[in-house]
Design brief:
66% of the residues lie in helices and 10% in strands. By secondary structure, it is α+β, with helices and mostly antiparallel strands. It has 3 domains: 16-109 and 178-321, MFS general substrate transporter like domains (Growth Hormone, Chain: A), CATH 1.20.1250.20; 112-177, no CATH class; 334-592, Growth Hormone, Chain: A (Up-down Bundle). The strands form 4 sheets. It has a 7-stranded antiparallel sheet, with no helix packed on it. The two termini are 29 Å apart. The model is unreliable at 1-10 (pLDDT under 50).
């Protein structure tokens, strides 16, 4: 319901925009504060505290982020037909607050690593001095330092008796003893965040749109301001969250920090009172099914637990078929992965076929262009979202994060490197807005397909920049932080070419009666990309003990091999899209 429907003149209370935009801006800022603060820590938490292998951590991270982008399809439907956007946002904020705070309570006793050799199990002791860690195999009163060799074998310095000095690749298996309750709470916590995000994410954007009447020229700039709230919250939390963990030595405080931000998001909406009266209300003809929805949401928690636990089990099994490459991974996908692959594949085939059979030429062509661009957006988001997984682990293991300026020295926490993305976005978004506007006045602004192609090329170049910068690694096989910052710079420019125009593209190219379906396909594509991104991260896996790699050179070579492959693949995808750009532009029939 808009101001106009309430019989009021449109508000001009906040920088020329409705004053309610300030409420929604700060609510979204605090919500993204919570999510991105948690994301900056999650993979490191999985490999360092729970001592999951890289392969398992990548699979779990991909499954979780896929659910985060999949649940808004359901949350948006429930809001449109039953709860209304405002109540849905509040419900989502409560679920996410509980999820983040519960996540903080999973950080009790750290998992205890071990290694199995020739049927015997040995405890692993880890000694940490600054950034370096040394791992020892414990055999009674004896301790033998573990050294990883480039051929995949391990050497146990000074080992004797029943303990062999060298163990070939495949002759040992690292694992960890974990607290079962802590693992259960971990999956439940992530499930609560996924459910809560499903209610919050789509519906607060809907409320922003309801502040403006159709044709109000302030709408686009209002969403631009709202988008800045996302990056402001991300910027703050990705700086302070990892810093709090570094200072306290505990992930618990970092997750509690994220939960505090999420509570502020809920309070901002809850205490708004009459300021939001009439906005995001329950549909007039909707039946009250609140308690049924609340019960179903709680009942969905064990479903989320099952999907996440299944992802971990499948990731463990996937290690045995890793040699079979992509097809081996596809064969071992968990239930969530199989469903997503199938549903996305069917959608990408069925919609063009239906369009060819049922629509007039212009509508048909535009729908097909939209589907093609969604497909290429999946490639983009798959690689861009490595920020929370493989790039964070690369920062932790193979990046020199020491910053020395004059007499100032600062060791940047590994999770904090993700701050480069929102920092570059905040700095460059206004410049891009001015640039696109100036080009548009001269009829030179790139069309959507060309912007997507540029984004794909740039995200590929970001990974190749890391590959190039690797030649400057130090004796510990750590690459200067500068090259990781360059990669994030290129990725951020790429994001500005793709992300702001994606949703707008869907609404412009889709026929009116199918806008909701196509918007759902767009989010399904992003969710699918998150899952595939987890698979990419799995291919970048390397052997670890207690979250630390056995051989820094092997680790660096593994990351760079994957980064080079996906970098080249992204540039090729951008080139293909560039080749088809004139055809796609023609198929848009004047839509810009």
């Amino acid at each position: 319901m808009t101001d106009a429907t309430l019989g009021r003149a449109p508000s001009q209370g906040w920088f020329g925009h409705p004053k309610q935009l300030a409420i929604l801006f700060t609510s979204e800022m605090w919500e993204r504060f919570g999510y991105y603060g948690m994301r900056a820590l999650l993979v490191l938490y999985l490999v360092q505290h729970f001592v999951f292998s890289d392969n398992v951590a990548g699979g779990l991270y991909g499954a979780f982020t896929a659910l985060v982008y999949l649940t808004p399809l359901i949350g948006g439907f429930i809001a449109d037909n039953y709860l209304g956007p405002k109540k849905s946002v509040k419900l989502g904020a409560i679920f996410m607050s509980i999820g983040y705070l519960m996540l903080a309570f999973t950080g009790g006793q750290q998992a205890e690593p071990f290694v199995d050799i020739q049927g015997a199990r040995y405890e692993i002791a880890v000694e940490k001095v600054g950034e370096s860690q040394t791992q020892f195999l414990v055999d009674g009163d004896q301790r033998y330092q573990i050294t990883g060799l480039e051929d995949g074998s391990i050497r146990l310095e000074g080992a004797q008796g029943a303990v062999p000095e060298t163990v070939a690749a495949g002759g040992y298996a690292f694992g960890a003893e974990r607290n079962g309750l802590a693992v259960l709470l971990l999956f439940v916590s992530l499930g609560l965040v996924s459910i809560g995000n499903g209610y919050f994410k789509p519906n607060i954007s809907t409320m922003v749109g309801s502040l403006y009447e159709p044709g109000d020229r302030r709408r686009d700039s209002g969403f631009t301001i709202f988008y800045m709230g996302i990056n402001t919250g991300s910027l703050i939390s990705q700086f302070f969250g990892p810093l709090i963990v570094a200072i306290t030595g505990s992930f618990q405080w970092g997750f509690a920090f994220a939960g505090f931000g999420m509570l502020l998001a809920w309070l901002r909406i809850e205490l708004a009172g009459k300021a939001l009266e009439g906005y995001g209300e329950r549909p007039a003809d909707a039946k009250n099914r609140d308690w049924l929805i609340y019960g179903a949401s709680i009942a969905a928690i064990p479903v989320m637990w099952f999907l996440l636990n299944n992802a971990v089990v499948a990731a463990e099994a996937a290690r045995a078929v890793a040699a079979n490459g992509v097809f081996g991974y596809l064969a071992s996908l968990p239930l969530l992965g199989k469903v997503m692959f199938l549903s996305f594949l069917v959608s990408m085939i069925a919609i063009p076929i239906w369009s060819l059979a049922s629509l007039k030429k212009e509508e048909r062509d535009r729908m097909i262009v939209a589907v093609v661009l969604i497909l290429f957006s999946v490639v983009f988001w798959t690689l861009f979202e490595q920020a929370g997984s493989s790039l964070t682990l690369f920062a932790d293991r193979n990046t020199d994060r020491d910053i020395a300026i004059g007499g100032f020295n600062y060791l940047m926490p590994a999770g904090q490197v993700q701050i480069f993305n929102p920092l570059f976005i905040v700095l460059m978004a206004p410049l891009f807005t001015l640039m696109w506007g100036a080009l548009a006045k001269r009829n030179l602004e790139p069309s959507v397909p060309l912007k997507f192609a540029i984004g794909l090329v740039l995200v590929g170049l970001g990974f190749l920049a890391l590959v190039f910068g690797s030649q400057f690694h130090d004796d510990a096989f750590k690459v200067p932080l500068f090259w990781l910052a360059i990669a994030y710079l290129l990725h951020s420019v790429a994001e500005l070419c793709v992300s702001p125009v994606g949703l707008s593209m869907i609404t412009k190219l889709s026929i009116a009666r199918l806008v909701g379906l196509m918007m759902g396909l767009w989010f399904l594509g992003i969710s699918f990309a998150q899952y595939v991104g987890g698979i990419i991260a799995q291919f970048a896996s390397t052997e670890t003990i207690g979250g630390q790699v056995l051989n820094a050179k092997v680790s660096l070579d593994t990351y760079l091999s994957v980064f080079q492959t996906i970098g080249i693949a992204s540039i090729i995808a951008g080139g293909v899209l560039l080749l088809f750009w004139p055809i796609l532009k023609k198929g848009m029939h004047g839509v810009v």
